[in-house]
Design goal:
The protein contains 25 helices and 27 strands. By secondary structure, it is α+β, with helices and mostly antiparallel strands. The mean pLDDT is 87.
Length: 713
Amino acid sequence: MTPFRFGRGEAVLRNFVENATIPTFLFNTDGVIVYANRAGSHVLGYAAGECVGIHFTAIVHPDNLATARTQTEDLITGKIQGYQAERRYIRKDGETIWALTSVSLMPGDENQVRYLSVQAVDIDRRKRAEAALTKSERRLQVALDTSQIGVFEGDLETGELFWDDRAHDIFGIPRGRKSLHAADWENALHPEDAAKTLEAMSRAIEEKGTFNAKFRIIRADGEIRTLRSRATYFQDDGATPKFIGANWDITDEVALEERLTTAKALAEARNVELEAAKARIETQALHDALTGLPNRRYLDQILNQYRNRSRLPGDSLALLHIDLDRFKQINDTLGHAAGDAMLVHVARLLNAKVAGQHFVARVGGDEFVIACFNDADVQGLAGLADQIIAEIGQPVPYEGHFCRLGASIGIALETGADIDTPRELINADIALYRAKGRGRNRHEFFSKALQSEIETTKHMADEILSGIEQGEFHPYYQPLLNATSLDIIGVEALVRWHHPTEGILSPIRFLRIAEDLNVLAAIDRSILQQAMVDLDQWQSQGIAVPSVSVNVSFRRLSDDRLIPGLRELNIRPGAISFEFLESIFLDELDDGVAWNIDALRDMGIGIDIDDFGTGHTSIVSLLKLRPRHFKIDRQLINPIAHMPEQRRLVASIIDIGRSLGIKVVAEGVETIEQARILQELGCDILQGFAFARPMPADQLVGWIAGEKWRKAS
């Protein structure tokens, strides 16, 4: 490719073209740049002369390339004489610019070589501004379409109206109708809103200000809509004055506002009623419905307020926790109505007793609390408690009956500026527990010693539960001997606790607490299972132990799970007998207990009565129960060697057993002399330290093999 050169004598022309501000290019008919002046090179981002040799396809934007080819071919072939086109060009740095391109065909030189003359005026700023305007207009259009705002213009001299499509839609006038007048707007105004709306428009015109109004219209189809309208006075130089603005339909918003206003009015109207209801609910929430006394929640609030306020070192708080005795019996025998009447009676009695000086609350079914603030001493509290116990103990008539209640009271008293009210409630409860444990119908004060005892008991209870989980309870066996032959007829399994730190503990250390925890059944079951294993092992070794008796809590006879659980153990008939304390029967064997006893017999499990002579079992009870053995309590056995009258009593008990066909066991036999006397009296079986102390299973085997008890006898 040969670059274009100006001819001789054309220096002036070359200088003019080179320094012209309009970008100028010459292309050969192949589309290659052969010349570019400074402005042309600059607009494309090239240095002078650097763009020579570049094909037009490298600088024309791809979107304009097809049109550029067609127009250039038409120009070269003579179809057109020249053309103008707005095109985008690609600069050296990759950016694009818009240019108004004028293209013409230069005649050939002496060599008949033709060139395309191209002038490109930079219109990039204008094109970008047009694009931005188009984009803005498009966004505005979308916004208007979305908002359903109708734009209008009104000529104040001619009365002509110009509405866009949305304004036509708002007023219900077809979009095709272009000839509109101010009367069309005025006639659409709702009669009730027309006067004030026209007045607002007139005032805005007069002041050449802003029209801002809310009004209703009646559309062409008869529908009533509410509009918001805003317009501004406007006048171009030499033009007629106009109002330009917008309308938008707010019918739905007005309806919503009206509903909200109505709802607000209803809410305000109900507010007084709600406040009254709230007061009633609050009263109900803080008071017991039956007695009218404050309830536990109210008591907690009062105690929290007292705890949180400033106090003096001499301040005091006393809590009396009252629990009614024999209340359950009244409920069970006379019904809940009678129980409710007794609760109301006690509430009135307590209110009358404190006479507004102290705070009285019902905190449970048959439990009450009296709180005495800054007016209490030990002597006065004890006197108050005794008076309450005495008055509650008076018989109360009810529908022809006299109901007799009792009361146990726990008292906690604290003084000083730092009183822990939740702790004091617990202390009063601890004292109440002690009062009930010591026989009821009494009061007890909380003390540090009592707290220590309770904590010790709780610690022991936790250890018992852990001991059951860890398998720390084991049977110790004490032999039962035939009183005549001194042969072993069985052994009694006595529970011992292998305490991890205190060693072997007897039942006296843990039995009461275990009973309170309701875990005696678990301990009994564990001892029974271990005894069965030991018995099977002895018999497999040829050791003569015919059976094992185990102590069982009488409470288990009321357990409907007792028999199914025992059947799972596959107890061999005659191998096991259960011992029950005599003092617990009291002739009260209900149907469930009787059924369980019969089921035990059917399984071949013997029934024995322990500690006979210390309780209240009658001959009738013995006939009902039909035990295999009953044991004479050690307290009756101990004095028989030196007290003839005690010996006669024991002889009578033995005669009772013989007449009923029940074998008699003497437990607590500590001397050979006692054993001889019991043998003479006709006692069947002997058990006691005179022959052997309770021992673990492995020691029992050696004891039986040595037969030392026979030599001692």
